[in-house]
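Our consortium's second objective concerns turning raw sequence data into structural hypotheses that experimental partners can test. To show how far this objective has progressed, the report includes one record in full. It was chosen at random from the queue rather than selected for favorable results. The single chain below, 152 residues long, was entered without modification.
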Amino acid sequence: MKRIEHLAVFTLMFLAMTSATFAQDSSAAAKSTTQQELCAQVQNQENLLLFGNPGAGKSHLLCALAHELIAQGRRMKYTSCAMLVQDLLVAKRDLRLSKEIKKLARHDGLIIDEMGYVQQSREEMEVLFTLLSERYERGSVLLTSNLPFSKW
């Protein structure tokens, strides 16, 4: 547990969502792809996008995957998209956006939960795009959304 606390920036929800609890969840999605295949994608700095209805198990799957990666020594960060965008907007206002993005770059994987809930103002999308473009091929981004990509 100490290793998880040290390597992960977490919330109470993150700590509760392990592969054991994911396996018990009968509504969990993405059963056709194994966790080992998903871990390999993150280790190869590939991105994962999970779309589906609320309650389908998207967040649970990514948190369980993060637990597995942390056990392998990877650094993971979990955040909701709304909180991430707010943090990035504050950093931009305070002229420290670059520093905030570098801080996030220390993580092998960045889980951004609930992408569909962002208000999508120009400024919000700008800071999010800046982060995603900086992470491109440098670290994995794992996204969940209730909206299909075409409706972002």
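The partners drew two points from this record. The two ends are 37 Å apart (CA to CA). The longest helix spans residues 58-71. Both points have been shared with the crystallography group to help prioritize constructs.
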